[in-house]
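Why this split exists: single-chain examples teach little about how molecules sit against one another. For that reason, every record in the complexes split bundles all components of an assembly together and asks for one structure covering all of them. Below is a record exactly as it appears in the raw files.
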Amino acid sequence: MDLNFTSEELAFRDEVRAFMREQLPADIAQRIKSGLSIRADDYRRWQTILYRKGWGAPTWPKQSGGTGWTPVQLHIFDEESAAAGAPRTIPFGLKMVGPVIMAFGNPTQQQRWLPRIVSGEDWWCQGYSEPGAGSDLASLKTRAERQGDHYIVNGQKTWNTLGQYADWIFCLVRTDPHAPKQQQGISFLLIDMKTPGITVRPIITMEGAHEVNEVWLENVKVPVENRIGEENKGWTYAKFLLGHERTNIAGVGASKRELQRLKDIARQETKNGRPLIEDPLFAARVAQVEIDLMALEMTQLRVLSAEAQKRAPGPEASILKIKGTEVQQALSELMMYAVGPYALPFERGSREEGDLRSIAGPSYAAPLAATYCNYRKVSIYGGSNEIQRNIISQMILGL
Amino acid sequence: MDFNFTEEQQLLADTVRRFVREHYPFEARREILKSKEGWSRDLWQQLAGLGLTALNVPEEHGGLAAGPVDTMLVMNALGEGLVLEPYLSASVITPALLARIGDEKAAADLLPAVAAGERIVIVAHQEPKTRGELNHVATRAEKSGDSFVLDGHKSVIMHGGAADEFLVSARTAGKTGDRDGISLFRVAPGASGLKMKVYRTIDEQQAADVELTKVKVPATALVGAEGRAFPALESAHDLGLSAICGEAVGIMKAVNAATLEYTKNRKQFGQPIAKFQVLQHRMADMFLNAEQATSMSYLAALKCTDPDLGERRRALSAAKVAVGQAGRFVGQQAIQLHGGMGMTDELIVSHYFKRLTAIDLTFGDTDFHLQQFIAATPAA
């Protein structure tokens, strides 16, 4: 066992660092480091920059247009880009549908869609969840009926993240409503968001943000060649996708950056006439999160090291999902409490629009309550943390 | 970066685990506990026969000069067996201290016998007001001609009763709490003026309080330079911290396996209680805690010899906090999930619980190390 990077890994770290210094737009880094949300154009700009460097798909193998990086390189990239204030890449193409197309798509499909994910030309969104199918995903009702060389799709998808910008949606649809088990009649379709019959309706979350949508599908005509894999075998591909979704879900790099921001804020705030960071109670809370984060990072490195042999994320990813999101939530909560009553003044949209002028109080306080509210989502999405515990008890404990 | 064990380490881990499973079943441990000493010389010799007592001794003194990762792997296995013999005290902390204090004569005198398991030397350092602070030494040693005279109280010295010889820390200069001025002395348990009270601890290990009243030792009993023992004491205890984290992880994995097994067999409401989701999620959390603790025990082993003292302190205190908290959660939930049976002396789970509890109270508890971590973390 050795925690030190090899000289090659150190050289790679320097290369990533230099790239971030030279290529990461300052306005994007400023937004990230101030805790503001990232706009669609910022994501697109950053993806283009990464693509030009040849880093458009960090987690993909070389032959599919990825970097072919080792798990340790991925870890270094995550760490360095987060520290520099780079946005996380949008996961829907790179981490969700991309790996499915790679594993189960035919060569034509791979050539058609994969390069445009890497280049950032296509923005993807997810069409998994439905109003009645959340954790129990296999109970989904959206219907796809075969008519010649097309499917006619009808139904409603929800919790569709950033779909208002998307070019394509990957959908789980029911192609056989009479299958003996509900998992058996599902297919995996790729749908052009410009197809007539698709309506995207915003869902406004409690902090006033438009991050998620409902997507209504009414008689949407989808060519059969847009189906990945076999008809009625979609559940297999869906599970594969969910496994990949948890790759790097721990967000260690971003949480380290947020921990630093928390400390910066707590140094500027005061309590009993002293910097808040020196208050024993607050310092103990910060230390607790920092220790949890250290443990998470070590666990992530252990999982990465094990994955290096077999290449596919196992049920261990559930550990990272649970502990990673707990740390993220704890950090967002502590940051809000650090500024006390100045967490309260709120202007709808300011976190999204990037207005750093606060209504009242220090500017760093402005987005904190909204972020705290927004971060309640992390233990719900990507398979709720309760579902992750089910996975651990079934797949690891054998219950 | 590499998270694999070497083939030799894997072999060591397998050997000790197999030994513990074959020679240290719970019933055998019960028999050992019936003896007055509460540990077995015979088993000690067997551990020595496997080379384990030589693990932390330098090669030039008949040892194997293994690293903290090897020690961690041994402690994982000894944890699973709840081994009663004085391994942590006599084969981890003592040789580490003697190897680091820079006294060739004492090392040559003591280490070969320590490595062979023939002589049990115990460090008597902790005092009633220490609470994890290694610099808190109130015991004094006054120079008087060719001798030193020691006065003080050493408390809850693990395996003190097993000692053939003590290494006693005492202050030759400065005031209680100073890092400078602490010296180390060889003291025989039978020395005149030394009163020892040997007792069992809650986890059925044994410990001793040692009172020193005008204990006279020759000047040659001084080990290392006068007043300069602290860095070696600290560094030996750092290896001890890493080792005890490894022991706790071994216990947690065993506790979780026992709990899983129990809930699969125990039936209520017509089905195994492992079928209930509330218990499944609890066991998932116990597993998560044990995994996080495992990660931190690795960090402790990899950092406990780091020359950067601040980095070392941060890693070790973080590990002790994480392991302490995980141990408390896993231990308490294991009792809870075993129900009434978890309360009994009959099942091993209560013994695991007690050892995990004792570990959190050893070498500074969770709160102590949380404070140490804060102090060692740079402000910027």
